[in-house]
C-alpha cells in the first residue's frame, strides 16, 4: 500500500524553498560537476547513468524514468557508453522489446575513479566545516538519497 500524507502547504513550500536554494549551491559549492565532466571526459548524463547502473541492471525505460529523460534520448547515451566499453545492452529473454543495460567491469572502474574524485572534492572542504557539520550533512544526504529513491521507484 503506498504511503500517503495530507498535503501541508507550509511544509511543501519549505521543502520547495530548500530545493530551490540548493540549485545554485550544489554544482559549485558542494561538488564541482564541471571538473568531473572535464577530468573524465564524459558528459554528466553519462555519469548519472553509470551511477544508476552501479546499483543494478536497468532497462532503457527505467533509466529514462529515473533521469527524467525521454527514452529516445537515453538510447544514444547508452550507445556511447556501450561503444566506450563501459556498459552492455542485453535484450530481455521474456520480452524482446525490452533492453536491459548492464555495467561492465570497465564501467565499474570508471565509477571508482569518479568516486575517488568526488571524495577528493569533499576532503577539500576541510577548514570550511567542522566534523560535526560534515556528519550532519552526511546524514541529511543519506536521508535525501533514501527518500528520493522511494519517490522514484
List the helices and strands and how they pair.
Blueprint: H1 9-30, H2 33-40, H3 44-55, E1 58-59, H4 60-67, H5 71-83, E2 87-91, E3 99-103, H6 105-123, H7 131-151
Features:
153 residues; three-stranded antiparallel β-sheet; mainly alpha
Give your account of this protein's structure.
With 153 residues, this protein is mostly helical. It contains 7 helices and 3 strands. Strands 1-3-2 form a 3-stranded antiparallel β-sheet. The protein is globular and about 50 Å long. The two termini are 13 Å apart.
**Tally of separate helices:** 7
Overall strand count: 3
Helicity level: 55-70%
Overall shape: globular
The Cα radius of gyration reads 18 Å
Q: Any low-confidence stretches, pLDDT <50, length ≥5?
A: none
Biggest sheet strand order reads: 1-3-2
Secondary-structure element sequence? HHHEHHEEHH
SS content category: mainly alpha
Question: What portion of residues belong to β-strands?
Answer: 5-15%
Mean pLDDT rating? 87
The biggest beta sheet reads: 3 strands, antiparallel
